[in-house]
Amino acid sequence: MPDEPYNPSPIDNPSVLARRNWWQTMLVKFIGKHTPKCREMVRILSQSMDEPLPLMMRIKKRLHFLICCWCQRYEEQLRYMRRTARQFPEHADEASDVPFSIEMRERIKEKLAETPR
Amino acid sequence: MTAIHAPPAVRSLELDAGFGSVCKVLRTRSTYDCGKKNRADELHSTLDFVMNEIAIQSAATRWVDDHGECLYRYALVRVRKPEVAEDLVQETFLAAVRGYQSFGGRSSERSWLVGILKNKIVDHFRKLGRETSFTDMEFLSDEFSEKFVPIGFWNHDVGPHEWKPEPDEVMHRAEFWQVMRDCLAKLPEKIRAVFTMREMDSVPSKEICATLSITDSNLWVMLHRARMALRECLEINWFDTPAGGTA
């Protein structure tokens, strides 16, 4: 098998499996070959936020994470964004300084008072 | 017609807001009920009703003061047009007054009101969805090619960094919310609408597709691009900065 043109594991690669010795290199190559590439993986990870992945893909994802801490981080960050985004509306007053003017306040109160229920 | 003198408890409330409407309701009710019921009973039930009305009215006035700003600023992030945002906030308060009985204090007032506003916003986009086609070709064609090496692995120099601090911590930082708002503002309008519906309003993806008349795969492409862009923007402007990273 010809060597891959790009070495996916630099020396400071923080992934669980990196090309630190012969058998790790073999394992990394094997997993790299049989799981989706990162470009595809991030698309799948995004989709998994909206509907459950098939079992085989979930297994492949786990295996891929062993050799790629970046995709693993990416997934964590998707969850991070979801968690914070859901809280955003309740903190919207901190997020901007657009004035909520006295006039607008009064208009709304007036409308509330005169509308029958 | 019976003249009703409000008891001290009622008088002590801030009456100015809804008193006119309360009196109107009172008048209709007393004439309608007159002669059918025992006078004391009628007075009693009417007074109960009035007290309730006044309580809701004064609560509503307080909501506008306490939460109006938050709701308005949120609506503005979502719809951009001040007059539309004001309408949505107003509708939210009206719906809140109508549905006050169903709010049993299960959640905080603010999250209850925000919940109503989210529904109003989804309704707004539903109307909008029929008028516009939801694609944004220029943004969607960006493949983030600089992020990946040609064979498809991450370019390790620009791959995702670790994010610190934890979500629970950043939620108390106003600067984080500002960065998030700015990053959202950079997304093209329709992509932003889709992303915020999915991630902020937690609308199921099937429902978004139906609301905006788009296909599943179209939705996934848009969400993927939005997440990629927002992730990148948050990382650069918050997590990699001293304000975010060293917190």
Describe the structure in your own words:
The complex is a heterodimer of chains A (117) and B (247). By secondary structure, chain A is mainly alpha-helical. In chain A, 32% of the residues are buried. Chain A is built from 6 helices and no strands. Chain B is mainly alpha-helical and 247 residues long. In chain B, helix 3 packs antiparallel against helix 4 and helix 3 crosses helix 5. Chain B has a domain of 114 residues: Winged helix-like DNA-binding domain superfamily/Winged helix DNA-binding domain (Arc Repressor Mutant, subunit A, Orthogonal Bundle), CATH 1.10.10.10. Chain B is built from 12 helices and no strands. Chains A and B meet through helix 2, helix 4, helix 5 and helix 6 of A and helix 2, helix 3, helix 4, helix 5 and helix 8 of B.
Our measurement of the CA-to-CA distance between the termini of chain B, rounded to an integer number of angstroms, reads 67 Å
Helical residue percent band of chain A: 55-70%
CATH architecture of the domain at 134-247 in chain B: Orthogonal Bundle
Q: Tell me the number of structural domains of chain A.
A: 1
The largest β sheet of chain A comes out as: none
What's the shape of chain A? Answer: elongated
Name the helicity range of chain B.
55-70%
In CATH's first tier, which class of the domain at 134-247 in chain B applies? Mainly Alpha
Contiguous low-pLDDT stretches of chain A (5 residues minimum) are none
What's the overall average pLDDT of chain B, rounded? 79
Radius of gyration of chain B: 25 Å
**SSE run of chain A:** HHHHHH
How is the main sheet of chain B built? none
Report how far the terminal alpha carbons of chain A are from each other: 76 Å
SS summary, helix count of chain A: 6
